[in-house]
Amino acid sequence: MSYSDLAESASETKEQLVANLRRVVSDAEDLLAATAGQTDTKITELRARAKENLHLAREKLADADAALRARARQAAEYTDEYVHDNPWSSIGAAAALGLLIGVLLGRR
């Protein structure tokens, strides 16, 4: 597995985490909407705090998503640049890694 593959795999995992967090925020908003009719003072205070926290979470989630995409793009650019600048080193490293994996799998 190359550095590019690892970076892509990590990026996909982080994207799944961001998607899961979005679902949690959405579910929390649905819960707030479902309890909108409650008039108890404590529930009203909790709803107000939850709304504010959800707003902050959405902002941080958007920032994290943008940073994640920027880092993934930068890693892909660095990898592409390295491979173009050092094609034989890249081929040698890939061949060595393939040989190592082949030896390890051959032991089974």
TrEMBL record:
Subcellular location(s) per record: Cell inner membrane
Keywords: Cell inner membrane, Cell membrane, Membrane, Transmembrane, Transmembrane helix
Stored Pfam families: DUF883, DUF883_C
Topology versus the membrane: Single-pass membrane protein
Chain ranges of the DUF883 domain: 15-64, 79-108
Family stated for the protein in its record: Belongs to the ElaB/YgaM/YqjD family.
Protein name: DUF883 domain-containing protein
Organism in which the protein naturally occurs: Ottowia beijingensis
